[in-house]
Amino acid sequence: MIKSKRNLALWVVFLAAAGIAPHVLGIVKTNVLVELAGFVLYAVSLNLLLSYTGVLSFGHALFYGVGAYTTALLLYHVEGFPVIGALLLSGLAAGVIGLILSPLLVRVTGTAFAMLTLAFGQLMFILCLKFREVTGGEDGIAGYDVPNLNIPGIASFDMLDPTVFYYFALAVCVIGVLIMWYITKTPLGQVVVGIRDNTLRVDYLGYKVPQTKAIVFAVSGFFAGIAGSLFALFQGIVSTDGVLHIMVSFYPIMAILIGGIGTFFGPILGSGILIVLEDLIMRYTERAELITGLLFIGVVLYAPGGLLWLWRGLMAKLFGSKSQPASEEVEA
Amino acid sequence: MSPVTAMYVAQAIHGLTYGMLLFLVASGLTLIFGMMGILNLAHASFFMLSAYFCYQVVAWTDSFWMALILAPLGTGLIGVFVERFLLRKVQQYNLGHIGDLLLTLGIALVIAEGVKTIWGTESHQVVIPPSLEGLVSVAGLEYPIYRLFIIGLAAAILSALAFILYKTRLGMIIRAAVSDADMVSALGINMPRVFMFVFGVGTIMAGVAGVAAAPMLTVFPGLADQIGLDAFVVVVVGGFGSLFGAVVVSLFLGELNAFGIQFIPRLAPVLVFLFMALVLSFKPMGFFGERDD
Questions:
Q1: What are the TM regions of this chain, as residue ranges (chain B) (predicted)?
Q2: In a domain, B27, yes or no
Q3: Residue B205 lies in a domain
Q4: Which residues contact residue B256 at a Cβ distance below 8 angstroms, ignoring those fewer than 6 apart?
Q5: Which of A69, A293, B78, B226 has its CA 20 to 30 A from that of B261?
Q6: Which pLDDT score is estimated for B68?
Q7: Contact B280 A257 (CB under 8 A)
Q8: For residue B285, which residues of chain A lie inside 8 Å, CB to CB?
Q9: Residues in A touching B240 (Cβ below 8 Å)
Q10: How far is CA A197 from CA A200, A210, A331, in A?
């Protein structure tokens, strides 16, 4: 009871803070928050694979990119295509790609999985680079209009207004994250964790391991696609370097690691730290990746479970609670 | 020789040159992976770092041969440092492969940005030493000496490596460690030192490849991208830890690359990844892999 009251209070504080944020922070920082909302969704979708299924993907940009390109292509070729429709179709396209690839992906784990996803990510990167007629190659697709968000009979929102877009991105992010959180709490989510911890045993218990994993890939791909779609709507330009580059696959891994591997909310914390830090670093130097790389090495060496585990360990030490940091929980 | 045959031969030697460079990078990677279970994502970055060292040494001493010795050694020293003080620490945590992958990814980022900070983003030229300049006539075909030099150098290193691995006591220990490092350790052999040695030799070989590639490809921040990804493909397809697999697949990829560019230029880069995806899907351990991870 106390816990749910505290959670409720936290939600109220979060929503209130998020609600007034654009009015307090100004446009530039609001745009950083929009970026953050998309990135959180993306990182949490990857976390379904990394922390819950226990596989490390080096090609998550594939789904992000498919989502972004779907939105860009839809808005470019079909004038006035509804925003929500584009968003959902992008997620669906990415999810379907996840399903199509899953018969191959479920066969491998560990390093082989990382390499296979890397291969698919690079394949898509090169294909989009080479098929200029469709994707615009290196230049990408730009100059599409983002139509108003229409809710028939109720209201019409101008998506080019930064504040409006911020609320839209926030809503998409929160809803997406909540759905994923709910999925981890369902029996399906429990089976997935079981597969991570002991695949053989889950198999012997009669659960269908490949099919379960395929569902997770599809769900994870779906939300990564939605995040990519948000990117396309927000930036107004989609290019191979922006959405399919190998770094796009690596960034959410960093966020998850910094925040806390094996947790649900760690990646959200990590995303916040990464985006805010990058924003700060960019003001002083062009070499943002140098600092991020160093930070990354530091985290792997000194806080191998991520900051959330560091915090929990500290709390456990201070208050003698029994929840020990358990970075052993995740194994590749 | 008819022009068509000449084209095939020239393209084949091109492929062989790249395949040999690839082998120098990939063999270190596969040995490190086979023994320590670490897929070193920074391996190609060492290749690039060595190319930059080569540029710097040539700029200072004006001698390519000096660079061929000093740059790989410098790179090897950094590699040993990384193994001793960073990787070994991460291996103590129980993070599985994720810890190694992430640490080496961080190192790769730092090297990639570090060279941009020190040497700038433009590409640097390293001149071919006069003794290796020019063309040589091979069976009625004009061919650059420098590329033949790369093939010879890599073949020499391959022979030396094969000799060490299959004819010496140290090689026996390394081969034993590829199949079961714990058991070798239990026999009283100082495994951490063997790990450090192999890691050092692996980075030195990547370094030699970097120096050899510098005059041919010029030195620029994206130098490691293609060869790095190709080297992973070699390790994965050839089988983790298999030197033989690394040789065969490196040469195959070199030729695939050369003839792919010749016949289907647009899709040439796709071939490599398509090949890896196919092999991984049906033979997850690779062609010559002995170890299951």
A1: 6-26, 38-58, 64-82, 94-112, 145-166, 194-220, 232-254, 263-282
A2: yes
A3: yes
A4: B15, B271, B272, B275
A5: A69
A6: 92
A7: no
A8: 112
A9: 111
A10: 9, 15, 8
Distance CA B184, CA B1 (A): 55
- CB–CB of B236 and A112 under 8 A? yes
A46 falls in which pLDDT band (50, 70, 90)?
Answer: very high
Residues of B with CB under 8 A from a CB of A: 33, 39, 86, 89-90, 93-99, 101-103, 105-110, 112-114, 116-117, 229, 232-233, 236, 240, 266-267, 269-270, 273-274, 276-277, 280-281, 284-285, 293
Tens digit of pLDDT at every position of chain B (293 positions): 677 887 888 888 889 999 999 999 998 898 888 887 788 889 999 999 999 999 999 999 888 999 999 999 999 999 999 999 888 888 777 666 777 888 888 899 899 889 988 998 888 988 888 888 878 877 677 788 898 899 999 999 999 999 998 999 999 998 888 888 888 889 998 888 999 999 999 999 999 999 999 998 889 888 888 888 889 889 888 887 788 889 999 999 999 988 888 888 777 778 888 888 788 777 777 777 655 44
Sketch the domain layout of chain A as residue ranges.
Answer: 26-245
Q: What is the residue range of B190's domain?
A: 3-282
Q: Which chain B residues are within 8 Å of A51, Cβ to Cβ?
A: none
The per-residue DSSP string of A28-47 comes to HHHHHHHHHHHHHHHHHHHH
Residue spans of alpha helices (H) in B180-267: 181-186, 191-217, 223-238, 243-263
Beta-carbon pairs below 8 A across chains A and B: 125
In a domain, B59, yes or no: yes
A127-175 tens-digit pLDDT? 898 888 888 888 888 888 888 877 766 777 777 888 889 999 999 999 9
The answer to whether B134 and B126 are in contact (CB under 8 A) is: no
**Counting every residue, how long is chain A?**
332
> Beta A237-238 vs B135-138: how paired, if at all?
unpaired
CB-nearest partner of B232 from A56, A115, A290? A115
Residues 6+ apart with CB under 8 A from B114: A290
Cβ distance of B270 and A127 shorter than 8 Å: yes
Establish if A282 touches chain B: CB-CB under 8 angstroms.
Answer: no
The whole model's pTM is what? 0.84
- Which residues of chain A are within 8 Å of residue B33 when distances are taken between CB atoms? 111
Chain B contact present for A301, CB below 8 A? yes
Q: Which amino acid is residue B33, in one-letter code?
A: F
pLDDT digits (tens, 9 = 90+) for A49-75: 998 998 889 899 999 999 999 999 999
Kindly state whether A104 is in contact with chain B, defined as any CB-CB distance less than 8 angstroms. Answer: yes
A292–B284 C-beta distance less than 8 A: no
> Any CB–CB contact under 8 A between A133 and chain B?
no
Contact A122 B233 (CB under 8 A): no
Q: Cα separation of A247 and A238, whole Å?
A: 15
Does residue B12 lie in a domain region?
yes
